[in-house]
Amino acid sequence: PLRRQRQMCIRDRITAKRNQYIDELEVKGHAGSDEYGRDLVCAIVSGIVTGLANALYEMAHEEDIILDEGYAHIKLHHPSSATDIIMNTAIIQLKTAQEVNKDYIRIMEV
User: Fold this and answer.
1) Taking 70 as the threshold, does the pLDDT of residue 7 lie above it?
2) For 1-110, where are the E strands, in sequence order?
3) CB count, 10 Å around CB of 15?
């Protein structure tokens, strides 16, 4: 089933693990750029990560996905060139959001 968007923002960090393909993504923390429910940085990150989760579920049948308040974790069990395109697209979107919200988003690739 498609996942509903939840508030998740990242004052803390986004971590992407890369082997041959990106096979894991973790988002932790809250932006704190405004009060809960009015935080546009949270809305941006939540929308990107929820869209990523839904794309991986619908297109690649990946189900090891946790979306919760202030936390998201995606672990791919069958990483491929197709999932890598999906994951990289989301990371590019998150980096774009980071460019204009440097105080609230930190991205780490390991």
Assistant:
1) no
2) 13-18, 22-28, 65-68, 71-75, 107-109
3) 17
Pick the more confident residue, 29 or 14: 29
Question: Considering Cα of 46, then 51, then 54, then 55, what sign does the dihedral take?
Answer: negative
Check: pTM over 0.90? Answer yes or no: no
Cα of first residue to Cα of last residue in the chain, in angstroms, is 30
| Sign of the dihedral defined by the CA atoms of residues 100, 67, 23, 58, in that order | negative
Please state, in angstroms and as integers, the Cα–Cα distance from residue 70 to each residue in 21, 32, 45, 60, 84, following that order. Answer: 25, 11, 10, 25, 24
User: Which pLDDT tens digit goes with each residue over 48-106?
Assistant: 999 999 999 999 999 999 999 889 999 999 999 999 999 999 999 999 999 999 888 88
Q: Which long-range contacts (CB under 8 A, 24 or more apart) does 77-82 make?
A: 79/19, 79/20, 79/21, 79/22, 79/23, 80/21, 81/21
What three-state secondary structure class fits 20?
Answer: coil
